[in-house]
Design goal:
It contains 14 helices and 2 strands. The protein is mainly alpha-helical. The protein has one domain. Strand 1 and strand 2 form a beta hairpin. InterPro entries: EmrE. Pfam families: EmrE. Keywords: Membrane, Transmembrane, Transmembrane helix. This is Multidrug resistance efflux transporter family protein.
């Protein structure tokens, strides 16, 4: 239950990304600065935490072992995750981006066959290639149905180009985030903690953010004070707090693929938080009854997803115990 709670808390702080990014876009800020400033601002906060834990030197030592892997998966997990989200905010409101982002539930499940999980057998633990969690995947479809209901009344107000510009980049991000996260867990194992891994991935993606900053400066000039402050808030709320909470949750279920899918499914709650955030801070319209039906459908799907995955895990453990 603890990983699920951590996942929901992460979703709350992640929701600030959608609201603040849309706010910065409406105020005329460049998406290039919105993307790059967040991760640049994250570094001193994370570095301080890791230094207090005396984990900076061990982290740098591990990063030197496979610098290419860190650069690649740091770019995939953070660069290809956040830059597309900021780009999508140019064309779509935060609620639609938050809703589209829930495709990460399906994306995370579809990535399962590309990874190995630890299975307990009479002869001891063995690593086997993961299988598609079909039951969990069906529960994910319920979550997506709820999201469709929530957004149905608003989608008619958007053009096809706006929908595509808001959908395709976020779809890319939905695969990149769990892929980068899982690959780094696979590479690092238990040698570093959550804070070290987040800092390492942030440092590894820094060349990409510097490049975006240069492009942003040459095309849009320096960021405004308002955008700088809002980017700092995103860095703290979403970049540090939410990322660490989510990575901690996934760490707890690292060797249990069904439970991993359940943790990733908790991110569906971020669409509810994003809707409330837009209503309160951006004066968006109060959701209609259809949206509330969709919200309850999302919650139901998340609960069923978690229950199904947990039941499957318990069943497997009982079978192994019986054989031994």
């Amino acid at each position: 239950m603890k990983p699920i709670i951590l996942g929901v808390c992460a979703a709350f702080f992640f929701a600030s990304t959608f609201v603040l990014n849309r706010s910065m876009e409406l105020s005329g800020g460049s998406w290039l600065w919105s993307a790059s400033l967040r991760y640049i601002f994250m570094i001193p906060f994370l570095a301080l935490i890791v230094m207090v834990q005396k984990g900076l030197r061990p982290l740098l030592k591990i990063m030197k072992e496979k610098p290419g892997s860190w650069l690649l998966w740091g770019f995939v997990g953070f660069g290809l995750f956040y830059a597309p989200l900021c780009f999508a905010a140019v064309y779509s409101p935060g609620w639609l981006i938050a809703g589209t982002w829930q495709t990460t539930i399906i994306s995370g499940s579809l990535l399962v066959p590309f990874f190995y999980e630890t299975k307990m057998t009479p002869g001891g633990p063995v690593k086997v290639r993961g299988r598609l969690p079909l039951r969990g995947l069906s529960m994910s479809l319920i979550i997506l149905l709820g999201i469709i209901l929530m957004q149905a009344e608003n989608a008619g107000n958007l053009t096809l180009n706006e929908m595509l510009a808001g959908f395709i980049p976020v779809l890319i991000a939905s695969f990149a985030y769990p892929l980068g996260n899982r690959k780094m867990m696979e590479i690092c194992g238990d040698r570093i903690n959550t804070f070290q891994r987040v800092l390492g991935m942030t440092l590894a993606s820094l060349p990409f953010w510097i490049l975006l900053s240069v492009i942003g400066f040459t095309t849009a000039g320096p960021p405004s004070k308002e955008q700088t402050l809002q980017s700092l808030l995103v860095a703290i709320f979403s970049g540090v707090i939410a990322t660490v909470l989510f990575f901690k949750a996934t760490d707890l279920v690292r060797n249990d693929i069904p439970k991993m899918a359940s943790v990733e499914a908790t991110q569906s709650v971020s669409v509810l938080f994003a809707l409330l955030g837009e209503v309160i801070f951006l004066s968006a319209d109060i959701p209609h009854p259809l949206s509330w039906i969709g919200a309850f459908t999302v919650m139901l799907g998340m609960i069923l997803h978690s229950f199904t995955s947990r039941r499957k895990s318990v069943t497997v453990n009982r079978q192994v115990t019986a054989k031994t």
